[in-house]
Protein: Putative ABC transport system ATP-binding protein
Organism: Streptomyces zagrosensis
Amino acid sequence: MVAPPDNDVLWARALTYTYHGSPALTGLSLGVREGEILSIIGPRGSGKTTLLRCLSGQLLPESGEVWFNSGPVHTLTNTAREQLRRNHFAWIAPEPCLVPELNAWENAALPLMLRGRGRRSARNTAREWLDRLDVGDCALSRPVVLLQSQRQRVAVARALAAEPTVLFADEPTAPLHGSDSSQVLRTITTAARSHGITVILTSQGPEADPLTDRSIALLDGRRGGITPGPDAEGSTACSVSV
Ligand SMILES: Nc1ncnc2c1ncn2[C@@H]1O[C@H](COP(=O)(O)OP(=O)(O)OP(=O)(O)O)[C@@H](O)[C@H]1O
């Protein structure tokens, strides 16, 4: 094993993953700097979700390495990877996955409470984030009575309230439309910049590019190109390895 560069919060080398013999990742490498907002752009089936799941320790790559803060993730036990995800990572899925028995603020507060935060403090933080996502009025409602777009905003609030080291956002605006989608993307990137959260988000098109530091194109489980974002010359320099 070769240790990754010190200033990469996440670093992956030569990742491969196949589903029942069908390749999803084919030797993919990348480094992500602390505080960077990186978008991974690719068509359906290009391997975006599989890549995020390998980087976040949800899936173990068949070969290759994943490192977080200079420690190997791919050699951790299941329990240690779960703990890593609970304490340092947050995840936004294309479909809002909320706990149906809990109301909106309880859903948004759940990761904080799982980390040991007291109920009142977790509720206050969760409600602040629901307000920022324009779903403060829904705080006491259960997911079943909310619109899909409101549920997704609650899921985004849940991810940001946890103030993770790394936020994995897999097509986070898929259930949203037009200005709704832009507003939620702006909230995610603004919150990430002000709280120093590293973000890796996926999309099928370049809509998030103006808000990110760097974009990587993915095609058939491989890197297909690199597009520097508008802030690429700013304080969040990028690291790329192929
Ligand atoms: N659970 C699974 N079982 C079998 N094949 C899968 C599974 N998940 C993904 N695949 C296949 O692996 C490849 C990569 O899928 P992946 O979901 O990572 O791509 P994606 O770019 O995120 O696509 P999408 O935008 O549709 O979510 C595709 O060919 C897909 O059909």
In short: The mean pLDDT is 89. The longest strand covers residues 8-19. Residues 185 and 208 are 7 Å apart (CA to CA).
